[in-house]
Amino acid sequence: MYLDDMFYHIYNRGAHRSNIYNSAFQFNYFLKLLERYRVNYKIEISAYCLMPNHYHFLLKQKKDGSISRFIQTLCNAYVQAFNNIENHSGTIFQGAVKGIAVVSDEHLIQLISYIHNNPVAAGLVNKPELWKYSDYGEWIGIKQFRFDGKALRDMYFSSTDEYVDLMKVHQENNNCRNYLLDS
Asked: Do the beta carbons of residue 33 and residue 20 sit within 8 Å?
């Protein structure tokens, strides 16, 4: 159960660790679904990263029960499209979506950095701004905000450079992953 006006780390991976996005079209289609359904379900998307075999979101619901319905609708719509494109049947996700409440400002900042650092940690790119399927570029001011991260970024960081510096420290120390594993 998710509470209103509270942040949650929402994530899931492909069944058997299989890819859930096999092409730029599939990544972009999922992002279009995110845009469509977040409005319907009154969800704030403050940070996200889509990886080939999993996704991470930092979400806040504005209406009771909306995160659960949002994720269910989003994933069902995507699975139908994926199965049609890939000539596949059944689910593509590994069990139920996972959701962890964000309990402190420190946890929130570590989580955002962890989400944005995922493509670097996985060896897909050597800089987070090179990964097309996250909102890191928006957080550092090289792309227009697509979702709701700007207010949160501006609340916690006095400049985009301050956030970039934090990311560099976390990349060097790899302390985002350690922090989250200890939570």
From this structure: no
Q: Residue 2 falls within a domain, yes or no?
A: no
Q: Cα(77)–Cα(33) distance, rounded to whole angstroms?
A: 8
Write the CA distances from 151 to 24, 60, 102, 156, integer angstroms: 28, 13, 17, 9
Q: Are residues 121 and 168 both part of a single domain?
A: yes
Whether residue 121 contacts residue 175, with contact meaning beta carbons closer than 8 Å, is answered with: no
**Six-digit token string for 108:** 């929130």
pTM of the full structure? 0.90
CA distances, 101 to each of 9, 67, 91, 121 (Å)? 6, 12, 26, 23
* Tokens linked to 121: 């940690």
Q: In what order do the strands lie in the sheet with 54-61?
A: 43-51, 54-61, 7-13, 98-101
Q: Is the pLDDT of residue 175 over 60?
A: no
Cα distance between residue 179 and residue 111, in whole Å? 9
Task: Look at residues 99, 115, 138 and tell me which one is the last residue of a structural domain.
Answer: 99
Q: Is the domain of 146 the same as that of 71?
A: no
How confident is the model over 24-65, as pLDDT tens digits? Answer: 999 999 999 999 999 889 899 999 999 999 999 999 988 887
77 lies in the same domain as 160: no
Could you give the 3-state DSSP secondary structure of residue 47?
Answer: strand
- Single out the residue in 99, 125, 150 at which a domain terminates: 99
